[in-house]
Amino acid sequence: MTPNRREAAKAWSVPMVTEVVPFKAFYKAENDHQDYFMKNPEQSYCRVVIAPKVSKFRKQYRSKLRTPSFPSPLCGREKG
User: Fold this and answer.
1) pTM of the model
2) Angle at CA 38, nearest 5°, toward 65 and 35?
């Protein structure tokens, strides 16, 4: 156990446990949320949070990715 985990464990009287189980229901998001990154690339959340993750993913898995049939919302802003 890392020192940080030991310290965190002292704050609770019972162990923290995450249960991983199959989901029972899937609820599709509303239409406004479908393809949010593609539709809203200039939103601050997309620029600050999503775009760096997409860029990192594309760099790491470049050889396995197909060329997208749609323009990237990153609009050439990816580096490397």
Assistant:
1) 0.51
2) 95
Question: Are the C-beta atoms of 73 and 41 separated by less than 8 Å?
Answer: yes
Residue whose tokens read 């990154």: 37
Distances in Å between the Cα of 80 and the Cα atoms of 5, 47, 52, 64 are 36, 17, 12, 16
Within the chain, residue ranges assigned H as helices are 3-10, 36-39, 44-45, 51-60
CA distances from 63 to 45, 60, 73, 74 (A): 28, 8, 20, 19
pLDDT tens per residue, range 3-61:
676 777 777 777 777 888 898 999 999 998 899 998 999 999 999 999 999 999 989 99
- How far apart are alpha carbons 36 and 49 in whole angstroms? 13
